[in-house]
Amino acid sequence: MMLWTHLSFALVIGLFVIKNISFSGNPITLLAFILLGGFFPDIDCATALVGTPFKFINMFLRHRGFFHSIVSGTAVTIIVFLLTGNSYYALGFLLGFMSHLFLDSTTKRGISFFWPSKIRMRGKLKTGRLPDWLLFFMFVIISVLMWF
Fold first, then answer.
1. Are 80 and 72 in contact (CB under 8 A)?
2. Which candidate, 116, 71, 74, 89, places its Cα nearest to that of 29?
3. Domain count for the chain
4. Which of 16, 79, 92, 96 is the most buried (most CB within 10 A)?
5. Cα-flanking dihedrals φ and ψ of residue 107, to 5°?
6. CA 41, 127, 98, 123 torsion: positive or negative?
7. Per-residue confidence at 144, pLDDT binned at 50, 70, 90?
8. Helix, strand, or coil (residue 121)
9. CA-CA distance, 134 to 36, in Å (whole number)?
10. CA neighbor of 140 nearest in space, from 30, 1, 2, 10
């Protein structure tokens, strides 16, 4: 999926959480962690906006490998918790991260949720094609409706 689709889906999830779940902390910060989680797995893609500054990662790990797994999501979520000391922000990051994995699992290339297992969850969508754009616009519309 495209970065914009990941971010718009994470935004829908974030707005839902902020509007429906009581938590201690700043809602904008929580939303920021959900959005961060929503694009973080693409850190392993040298051509992705988020991965460009970290091209060296792509020399060691292939795209949609380790960083597109529950193993990575758990490890990075623990790091987020240790850095922030806030379980809500860490869980927000994990929620965004899992939203990314879910969307990428609907593509033809798919992902290995349980890396290093070679078993891939796959769908029928192609990244950057019409269905991807339609999902993006749908998520944007839902976000706007949720905002008000």
1. no
2. 89
3. 1
4. 92
5. -90, 165
6. negative
7. very high
8. strand
9. 22
10. 10
Q: Which structural domain, as residue segments, surrounds residue 53?
A: 3-17+24-147
How far apart CA 40 and CA 35 sit, in angstroms, is 9
- State the burial class of residue 72 (Cβ atoms within 10 Å of its Cβ: 0-12, 13-18, 19+): buried
Specify the 3-state DSSP secondary structure of 125. strand
Judge whether 8 and 140 are in contact, CB under 8 Å.
Answer: yes
CB 62 within 8 A of CB 44: yes
Q: Which position has the token pair 């019409």?
A: 130
Cα within 13 Å of Cα(26), Cβ side? 5
pTM score, whole prediction: 0.88
Distance CA 34, CA 88 (A): 10
CB 29 within 8 A of CB 23: no
| Residue 98 structure tokens | 């899992």
Task: Give the pair of three-digit tokens for residue 3.
Answer: 């970065």
